[in-house]
Amino acid sequence: MASCLKRLILIISSLALFGCSDSRAPEHLSYTHGLGIDYKDGEYIIYIQLLNLGTLAKSESAGSGEDVVIEVGRARAKNVDEAIFHLYRSAEQEIYWGTLSYIILSENLLREEGLNSVIDMWSRYPETRYQISLYIINKEIEKAMLTSPVTDVSKGLNKIARPENSQKQNNFVPFINLRQLLILLDEPNHLGVIPHISVSEHSWKQTKNTPRPLIEIDGISLYDRDEQLLGNLIGKEAQGFRWVTKEFSRSDLILQKNNQPLAALIVNNIKTKIIPIVKDGKVTFQLNIKADTSVSELNLQSPLQELEEKAAKEIKEQVLFTYLEALKLDADIYRLSEKLYRSDLPSWKKHSENGKLELKEESLEIEVEVLIKDALRNHLKRSVK
Fold it and tell me: Which of the pair, 249 or 219, is modelled with greater confidence?
């Protein structure tokens, strides 16, 4: 009886070993962190950024200043998959794709080839996820992927890999992942709004006045499912978009009076509502915005009502300016077509063409209401005169 029991235990142990025979030891893998894709002279150029997860964990837990090693590989070929396999030939270990955090695409790729080939390839990789942040850049993909955060923050926690960290403080442009982009492209008006980035060497410096290159989100790229890249809205051109997006969290608003600084407000909450109006054979839209704000800086003593009115006017002007700049690119940036599609399908079918409405400046009416919540009238005085 005892010998039979020993044999049974031996058999079970052997089966357990066979079950683990095809598993991969973590130390035998190279972990992807970022992917860049460019297109030039009829070839795809890919960049793969690798991350040492062991050092990352040590940096996060101990808060040490030890640098996390990140390496970027580069290859080019007639298609993305072939370029990746070129990199496999020189890789010292198996490359694991399940840790990929972000993808940077070049403007030239979107203009020449669009996203179809990239999405088709990506959907066939079983290790990849759809919760991967997407960004557009004009050039310098490799330079962007080699930048590192300031202080001793791990490179694995940089701005584009973990965009939610910095956006809690300033939500200039909301980030988007692959899943969200596919949904936007599938619904009328088939337009994706993707953060546009660049490498800035002017904002931060190191010792001896040495410039510190860092990634900066400077605007948005407008990508159409059928017409591919429509163009970019950079800087002030994109400012109005933040007030309409439902992903808004927090942003600043600077007010002026007679070309002089008046006050700086922090917008903490935004509520927007877009109402389609079909009348006399025409389609227009009413955009209502309600903003809760607080005063962070007061340059000139002003009554509460004046600040609220000027803030409402400033937000309205920014929203309208971004809308008009997008119309120049034939882009419905606030997805007005989708609002009509969901509320009045017969009217949408009647007035749309290829899932889009013909929009003009007169197509949008904007009403903005601003409430300063944490500054009583007797507190709106300058501390130092």
Answer: 219
State whether 45 and 170 are in the same domain. yes
What tens digit of pLDDT does each residue of 341-364 get?
999 999 999 998 887 899 999 999
d(CA 174, CA 70): 26
Asked whether residue 189 falls in the same domain as residue 104, the answer is yes
Percent of the chain topping pLDDT 90: 39
CB pairs under 8 A, 24+ apart, for 80-87?
Answer: 80/37, 80/44, 80/46, 80/117, 80/118, 80/121, 81/121, 82/44, 83/43, 83/44, 83/45, 83/46, 84/46, 84/48, 87/46, 87/48
Neighbours of 180 (CB within 10 A): 19
Residues 335 and 199 in one domain: no
Q: Which residues pair with residue 39 across a beta bridge?
A: 44
Give me the numbers of helices (H) and strands (E) for the chain, helices first please. Answer: 11, 15
SS3 206: coil
Residue 283 has pLDDT above 90, yes or no: yes
pLDDT for residue 377: 47
Contact 113, 105 (CB under 8 A): no
Assign residue 263 the CATH number of its domain. 3.30.300.210
Q: Any residues with CB less than 8 A from the CB of 128 and at least 6 apart, and which?
A: 97, 98, 100, 122
- Identify the three-state secondary structure at position 30: strand
Q: Count Cβ atoms within 10 A of the Cβ of residue 292 and give its class: 0-12 exposed, 13-18 middle, 19 or more buried.
A: middle
For 275, the domain range is: 250-385
Question: Around 340, how many Cα atoms within 13 Å sit in the side-chain half-sphere?
Answer: 30
Q: DSSP state, 20? A: T
**Claim to verify: residue 325 and residue 376 sit in the same structural domain:** yes
Residue 93: is its pLDDT beyond 70? yes
Q: CA 68, CA 148: separation in Å to the nearest integer?
A: 9
Instruction: Give the residue from 19, 24, 21 showing the smallest Cα distance to 127.
Output: 24
267: left (phi over 0), alpha (psi -120 to 50) or beta: beta
337 — pLDDT class (breaks 50, 70, 90): very high
